């Protein structure tokens, strides 16, 4: 076949009206022709090329597919930004620029499908009707009325003995428990016959041991649990080491409970809900720990640990097991959550009841199970007896329902959810009933703390309340990565509320949730985004005292969504690295990177909790331990507790706490100048403890006891020295 020329090809195209005779070979024909020509060549002309030695390359071990450059750069920028906000040298301007760039890249990465975050599975369809038991509804009405009435403030005769004055007595408590039981029975979904109940119990007893499986995931959960318990109980006795006036007030309330003063609401020190005091009293009875700081700490540590299983369950409900485990581990070891649980005050009661209330609410909405709404109602009602910031949670429940109502869901699902929320409200009201009765009878006492911060009861607003609100909101949202407030009792003042890794993934996760909610509207994403500032409202709404915002205690309910958001972002980051590294080894490396980030978080939280926090706490707290030890040594050698005093001095120490540190019963060991003369009548040696600046009272006592010796006690903590005046027996 003669090879056509270019001129032949031009002629063929110009004479388009005549049938073509020119044949141009296809690519397949050309390839076949070349193969035939090679086969026809002599064998000796075919030379085998030398085998080239393979060049080493990272791709040999870590083949990368579509490396997530935007996401990685976003993370690195956020990491540098957050490191620049670590005290003492905070570079706010640099951090702001880097964070803005990071957020833009992260949003871009998510928008183009590079950075994903785990999503909840599809919601279940409505599979049951809301029915109720008429007998239980009928029986609950008189029980609720009787409970309300018997918790009233009647003082007359037998009524007070049986029902008390806003106190838990046998009969009114029995009526209350019965009202809760019957109300739950009216709506709960359970087997209708005793045979079904017995069969279910028998089946559970037989099968539950088989459900416990020892596998890598079980071992992981055990490891995570062990790490969390270590963080929560390690050095519990000395972190923190000192008590404050708040602790003395709490122990006085506990002492009241042990003396059978069983109040619904304790009015001491502006008023407090009751759960902590009954919990601490139970711990004292069970473990014989006494009226001590440790008794308070044990109770609050247990409360802090109690929230974690529900954070795990909520994380698994919203996303997956990995998110659940990471959220639980980080929440269990975080400096924020750890400090508020070991300080011995009511703070961890806020997340303790927020976690189950939100978990069962979300589960009830998604799975359309009435029992979940009942459990959420029980948690909501109990939470009202815990810590006053929890009072915002009923409004958050309503917000969640409104968001779901506005979402694109079948009508029957919305109707089911509305009924579920109504049942939730009824159950929670019955659980809340004794305190509700107190609130109606004593609104000024019950709402005092709220009104003094929200309104101008105690002092006028320092500016426009609207502007203060938005300023507080801004400062609260900056709390995680910039400034956690000024309160040394339960924080390290003026540092970020989260560790570097936690803050980075919180802000990135928050931005990604907003982007996902915009691109693909989902009620759960919207609620998760809004739940953070809503749960921080008890701090944000401190309009009369904006200096008190932010605080780690009044924002502690936000621990629940914050650490789930952190886990969502971290899980998504590791997942995108896994997708990029195609090989098995590369995926292992991706998980190692995720583990390394968690380890870095644990390391910093350890330093914050066990090094920086106790150091700054000791510098600010009163030196009651060493003073108490001096008095203890005096009383157990040649003196007595009745002949030892702490001379009162403004803004020094709580002299009631000193008595506990000295090993005696809780009482005030203070003595004031006008009482000095009464000590002359007491026989034996006498001990006076004075502030180093109290020269005037020292001179007065020396004139009364000229043979007394005075020395300065050098404290282990700088600036906490005190004077010891020992007056011997006069000859």
Q: Describe it for me?
A:
This protein has 731 residues and is mostly helical. It has four domains: 6-45, no CATH class; 69-111; 189-618, no CATH class; 624-727. It is 60% helix and 4% strand. The chain has 31 helices and seven strands. The protein has helices at residues 6-14, 27-40, 58-61, 69-83, 92-111, 134-150, 157-163, 170-187, 194-211, 216-233, 245-258, 275-287, 293-306, 308-318, 321-333, 335-342, 349-367, 370-383, 393-406, 411-441, 443-446, 448-454, 465-478, 500-519, 523-535, 537-540, 559-580, 584-620, 624-635, 655-661, 695-704; strands at residues 265-266, 272-273, 644-647, 670-671, 686-690, 709-713, 722-727. The strands form two sheets. The chain has a five-stranded mixed β-sheet with strand order 4-3-5-7-6. Strand 6 (709-713) and strand 7 (722-727) form a beta hairpin.
């Amino acid at each position: 076949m003669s090879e056509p020329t270019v001129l032949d090809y031009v002629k063929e195209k110009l004479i388009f009206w005549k049938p073509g005779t020119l044949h141009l070979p296809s690519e397949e024909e050309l390839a076949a022709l070349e193969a035939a020509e090679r086969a026809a060549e002599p064998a000796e002309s075919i030379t085998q090329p030398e085998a080239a030695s393979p060049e080493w390359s990272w791709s040999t071990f870590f083949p990368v597919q579509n490396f997530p450059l935007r996401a990685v750069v976003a993370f690195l920028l956020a990491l540098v930004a957050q490191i620049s906000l670590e005290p003492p040298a905070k570079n706010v301007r640099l951090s702001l620029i880097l964070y803005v760039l990071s957020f833009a890249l992260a949003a871009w990465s998510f928008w183009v499908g590079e950075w994903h975050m785990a999503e909840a599975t599809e919601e279940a369809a409505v599979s049951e009707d809301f029915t109720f038991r008429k007998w239980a509804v009928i029986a609950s009405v008189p029980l609720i009325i009787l409970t309300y009435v018997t918790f009233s403030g009647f003082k007359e005769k037998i009524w007070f003995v049986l029902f008390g004055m806003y106190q838990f007595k046998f009969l009114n408590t029995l009526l209350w428990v019965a009202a809760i039981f019957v109300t739950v029975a009216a709506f709960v979904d359970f087997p209708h016959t005793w045979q079904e109940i017995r069969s279910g119990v028998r089946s559970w007893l037989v099968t539950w041991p088989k459900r416990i499986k020892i596998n890598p995931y079980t071992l992981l959960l055990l490891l995570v649990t062990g790490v969390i318990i270590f963080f929560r109980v390690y050095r519990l006795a000395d972190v923190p080491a000192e008590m404050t006036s708040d602790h003395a007030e709490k122990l006085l309330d506990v002492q009241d409970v042990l003396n059978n003063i069983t109040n619904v609401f304790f009015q001491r020190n502006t008023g407090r809900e009751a759960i902590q005091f009954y919990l601490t009293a139970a711990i004292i009875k069970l473990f014989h720990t006494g009226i001590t700081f440790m008794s308070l700490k044990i109770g609050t540590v247990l409360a802090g640990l109690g929230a974690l299983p529900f954070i795990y369950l909520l994380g698994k409900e919203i996303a997956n097991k990995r998110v659940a485990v990471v959220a639980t581990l980080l929440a269990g070891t975080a400096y924020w959550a750890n400090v508020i649980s070991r300080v011995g005050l009511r703070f961890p009661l806020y997340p303790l009841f927020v976690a189950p209330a939100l978990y069962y609410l979300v589960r009830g909405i998604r799975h359309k199970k009435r029992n979940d709404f009942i459990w959420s109602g029980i948690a909501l009602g109990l939470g009202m007896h815990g810590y006053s910031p929890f009072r915002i949670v009923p409004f958050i429940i309503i917000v969640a329902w409104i968001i779901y109502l506005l979402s694109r869901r079948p009508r029957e699902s919305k109707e089911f959810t509305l009924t579920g929320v109504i049942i939730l409200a009824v159950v929670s009201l019955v659980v809340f009933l004794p305190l509700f009765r107190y609130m109606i009878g004593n609104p000024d006492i019950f709402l005092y703390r709220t009104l003094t911060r929200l309104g101008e009861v105690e002092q006028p607003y320092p500016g426009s309340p609207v502007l203060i609100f938005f300023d507080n909101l801004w400062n609260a949202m900056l709390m995680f990565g910039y400034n956690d407030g000024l309160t040394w009792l339960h924080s390290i003042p003026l540092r970020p509320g989260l560790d570097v890794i936690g803050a980075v993934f919180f802000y990135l996760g928050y931005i990604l949730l907003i982007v996902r909610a915009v691109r693909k509207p989902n009620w759960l994403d919207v609620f998760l985004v809004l739940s953070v500032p809503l749960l921080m409202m008890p701090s944000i709404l401190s309009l009369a005292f904006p200096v008190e915002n932010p605080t780690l205690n009044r924002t502690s309910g936000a621990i629940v969504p914050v650490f789930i958001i952190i886990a969502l972002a971290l899980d998504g980051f590791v997942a995108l690295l896994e997708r990029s590294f195609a090989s098995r080894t590369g995926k292992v490396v991706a998980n190692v990177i995720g583990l390394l980030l968690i380890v870095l978080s644990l390391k910093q939280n350890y330093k914050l909790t066990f090094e920086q926090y106790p150091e700054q706490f000791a510098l600010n707290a009163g030196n009651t331990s060493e003073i108490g030890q001096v008095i203890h040594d005096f009383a157990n050698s040649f003196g007595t507790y009745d002949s030892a005093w702490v001379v009162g001095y403004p803004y020094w120490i709580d002299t009631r706490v000193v008595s506990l540190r000295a090993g005696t019963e809780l009482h005030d060991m203070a003595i004031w100048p006008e009482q000095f003369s009464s000590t002359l009548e007491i026989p034996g040696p006498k001990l006076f403890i004075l502030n180093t600046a109290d020269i005037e009272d020292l001179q007065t006592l020396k004139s009364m006891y000229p043979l007394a010796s005075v020395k300065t006690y050098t404290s282990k903590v700088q600036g906490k020295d005190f004077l010891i005046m020992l007056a011997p027996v006069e000859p």
